[in-house]
Specification:
By secondary structure, this protein is an alpha/beta fold. The protein has helices spanning 26-35, 63-69, 80-92, 104-115, 129-137, 165-175, 199-212, 223-233, 242-251, 277-290, 301-314, 317-336, 354-357, 367-379, 388-391, 419-434, and strands spanning 50-51, 97-101, 121-124, 141-144, 182-186, 215-219, 255-259, 270-274, 349-353, 381-382, 384-386, 407-411, 442-446, 457-460. Bound molecules: ligand P61.
Length: 461
């Protein structure tokens, strides 16, 4: 990090417009979280002070992006903004064909429907909730092939997003390449704590897949953040630009699904990008059924323009250094208070280790869910559970999956909060940590069948 030279980073922007946020009293928060069934997804944002639920769609757009919104071409077909988006994807990521979608899961839906047959298996470097669900809905099953270190919050491995090649080889040996429509490789692995994979590892995955003719599909949602860590940590990359590293990552893969709501700094948008023409053709046929014409795919022209501009902004070194720098700042601050977190600190948020934070609670009383509610009660800071509730039930056994990682994610929106906000968040987490022995678990009293964490309701034990 440049801190080696004792120079702080600072945001490469100044603030032009502000949005007031509301402070609440403890009594108001008690009523709000009870009404929300102890689920931070069910809180009204008006009742939230600092909103660290997600970095998805919560970024502040730049003046250039807002100016781009005024250049929206809202023609039904052939909008000029689509061609700008297509050009940006081709230039930055290098994929040949682009199918716009309203957000990431829509790209996952289309990809899953056109590639997966019942009985197929999908190896990937840790599950993501929507990705795995769309694979399952298409008849496939996800197999985790990430390195073991990724499941250990205390492991300091610099590339916890890496694939364990022996695990991947074992899946190929067991099922045969014909049952594997693609290997799904996420950059800055979300559920592991925003952990990067190395280019050396990705190249080895590519080589192995080439031997069997298996496609590699990239979840590029946070690829620029992953590229920053490669520049910082991987031998041989210190002098490369973020753009060069992003391109090198994408060049190892056959296409990507993208939620533009993260790296690309927009409030809504996504796409599926592919190199294979036949697959692109199938995707285009599918997008008109579920999203809209293949030149807007559920987005307004103005939204596509904002994505095109945001993609360029996402690979700016000063931007990404400040973005990741702010996350590191919060993580170190929380660590100074002795609070257990996932290390190394990831790119898009600080992940509290709820098992170590609340060792007196069994995982089936949902410690991370309880901890997120407790932090909200303390300060109005909203976090997200990423543990047993998010992991859901095993479709075979019907039991809770009880993942190794039982985490609370403090996710930092891009270009939105200040260092002072980060201080307030860290102090609140420390306060809750001091009171941790008094925290009790929760009982789930309403459980939706799919993606239960979004709408589940709980009661205190
Ligand atoms: C998030 F609690 N992420 O992190 P869509 N791939 C990846 C993502 O991070 C991602 C999507 C695909 C969100 C929003 C969210 O369980 C949850 O544009 C690596 O949201 O459809 C989204 O992209 C899907 C929150 C999604 C969740 C699912 O906060």
């Amino acid at each position: 990090m440049s801190e080696k030279r004792r120079r702080s980073w600072a945001e490469p922007f100044k603030i032009k417009m502000v949005e007031p946020i509301k402070m609440t009293t403890r009594a108001e928060r008690e009523a709000a979280i009870r009404e929300a069934g102890y689920n931070t997804f069910l809180l009204k944002s008006e009742d939230v002070y600092i909103d660290l639920l997600t970095d998805s769609g919560t970024s502040a757009m730049s003046d250039r992006q807002w100016a781009g919104m005024m250049l929206g071409d809202e023609s039904y077909a052939g909008s000029r903004n689509f061609y700008h988006l297509e050009a940006a994807v081709r230039e930055i990521y290098g994929y040949k064909y682009v199918v716009p979608t309203h957000q990431g899961r829509a790209a996952e839906h289309i990809l899953s429907q056109i590639t997966i047959k019942p009985g197929d298996v999908l190896p990937g470097n840790m599950y993501f909730t929507t990705t795995r669900l769309h694979q399952e809905l298409a008849g496939g099953s996800f197999v985790d092939v990430i390195i073991d270190e990724a499941h250990d919050p205390a492991s300091e491995h610099p590339f916890k997003g890496n694939v364990d090649l022996r695990k991947l080889q074992a899946v190929i040996d067991e099922h045969g390449a014909g049952k594997i429509p693609y290997v799904c490789i996420a950059t800055a692995v979300n559920m592991a704590g925003g952990q990067p994979l190395s280019l050396a590892n990705l190249k080895a995955v590519r080589e192995l897949c080439n031997r069997y003719g298996i496609r590699v599909i990239h979840d590029a949602t946070r690829v620029a953040e992953n590229a920053y860590f490669i520049k910082d940590r991987e031998p041989g990359y210190a002098r490369k630009t973020i753009a060069e590293i992003v391109r090198e990552i994408c060049d190892q893969t056959d296409g990507c699904t993208m939620s533009a709501k993260k790296d690309a700094l927009v409030n809504i948008g996504g796409f599926l990008a592919l190199n294979d023409e036949a697959l692109f053709d199938a995707a285009r046929n599918m997008v008109v059924v579920y999203e809209g014409l293949h030149t807007y795919g559920g987005m307004a022209g103005r939204d596509m323009e904002a994505v095109a501009i945001g993609l360029h902004e996402s690979i700016d070194y000063e931007h990404i250094k400040a973005r990741v720098g702010q996350v590191l700042y919060l993580g170190r601050k929380v660590q100074e208070f002795g609070v257990p977190i996932v290390v190394p600190i990831g790119s898009h948020g600080v992940f509290l280790d709820a098992k170590a934070f609340l060792p007196h609670l069994d995982q089936d009383v949902y410690p991370a869910q309880a901890l997120a509610a407790e932090i909200y009660l303390d300060s109005g800071v909203r976090a997200m559970e990423r543990g047993n509730v998010s992991a859901g039930r095993d479709p075979q056994t019907g039991r809770n999956r009880r993942p190794n990682l039982e985490l609370v994610r403090l996710t930092i929106p891009r270009r939105v909060y200040t260092q002072a906000h980060m201080d307030v968040v860290a102090e609140s987490v420390a306060e809750v940590y001091d009171q941790r022995t008094a925290i009790k678990g929760l009982k789930m009293v309403y459980e939706p069948a799919q993606l239960r964490f979004f709408q589940a309701r709980f009661e205190p034990l």
